Amino acid sequence: MSDHEPYAGLIEDDDLVVTDTKQVDARRKEIEDFRWVLSTEQGRRFMDRLIGMAGVYAPTFLDGIKEGRRMFGVELLAEIEAIAPDQCLRMLTERLKRIEDAKNG
After folding, report:
1. Which stretches within the chain are classed as H helix?
2. Of the candidates 47, 8, 14, which has an alpha carbon nearest to the alpha carbon of residue 28?
3. What whole-number distance in Å separates Cα of residue 76 and Cα of residue 51?
4. In the 8-state DSSP scheme, what is residue 38?
5. How many other C-beta atoms can be found within 10 angstroms of the C-beta atom of residue 17?
6. Is 2 within 8 Å of 19 (Cβ atoms)?
7. Cβ partners under 8 Å of residue 51, min gap 6
8. Whole-model pTM?
9. What average pLDDT values come out for the chain (105 residues) when binned by 10 residues?
10. Among candidates 43, 56, 57, 54, which has minimal Cα distance to 91?
């Protein structure tokens, strides 16, 4: 993605390519919101907590409700990776540090 087209590839929603101007503007605002939230340690910690609550890192054992929650978390994580890959990596690194700190007391 170039600096000239910061939304290239992100103005698509699964099977629907967004072409309506209002939809494109709304999607740009969503992307900017995601980037804003992920720009702070608190925002990354909050998003990581949501992903964890969804059970992305836990097995579901064929439980439909848990699998539905997990799919939401996977989609959220994919959105973060697409919009702000550097911040996603940072979020996951911070998560691992919190886990390590908890183990070491």
Report:
1. 21-38, 41-53, 64-83, 85-103
2. 8
3. 7
4. H
5. 9
6. no
7. 57, 73, 76, 77
8. 0.72
9. 56 59 87 95 96 87 81 93 94 94 90
10. 43
